[in-house]
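Ticket #4471: complex job returned nothing on first submit. Input attached below:
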Amino acid sequence: AQSVTQLGSHVSVSEGALVLLRCNYSSSVPPYLFWYVQYPNQGLQLLLKYTSAATLVKGINGFEAEFKKSETSFHLTKPSAHMSDAAEYFCAVTGSFQKLVFGTGTRLLVSP
Amino acid sequence: GAVVSQHPSRVICKSGTSVKIECRSLDFQATTMFWYRQFPKQSLMLMATSNEGSKATYEQGVEKDKFLINHASLTLSTLTVTSAHPEDSSFYICSARKRIHPGAGLSNTGELFFGEGSRLTVL
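Support reply: We reran it on our side without changes. The output follows.
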């Protein structure tokens, strides 16, 4: 079975500041991990994914995440926040590409 | 790219009526489609997994007679909310997995592509 925990339902940063959204996973098999972004009343857009290749994964819009097996973490970062980054972010895990299990989401707020 | 389209994006209906939501993969074949439900400010909860040509597999607690899922072709899955009630009001999102072709190699890592979602409001 797989699960993910996203620490912090809300994260507030200033424009230009570092963005750090936390995700810890639990999986009985080698995991595949994903970060998705959701804008209001829209579906999900894939930011990046870890599929057992490089542990540092670069995604769209300047986001990246590092898979750390020893810490069972897959935190999402971006060096400099933009106003347009304000959205809901979901971490997800699957062991077999069958079912994606989502975290509870973290709302990123960016202030001028 | 891989585009998944949902229709309608918004629907308002009266209590007791049935509502059908379509999920189409526009530029790829999808052997598996997933239906999720999202309550306000909450995560996505998987409702059911739909495989082309076979019956859907429902998650525990999801009424299969209430939420009818049909995956008639490799590009279309439908979710019908039967006899809708106000508590069925929610945001429904589908996702689709590309059909795996032999020799696809690293080009297919099982990524899911999501539709834009359909907001159902039952009065």
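The interface with chain A takes residues 4, 6, 32, 34, 41-44, 46, 49, 91, 93, 95, 97, 109-117, 119 of chain B (CB under 8 Å). Closing as resolved unless it happens again.
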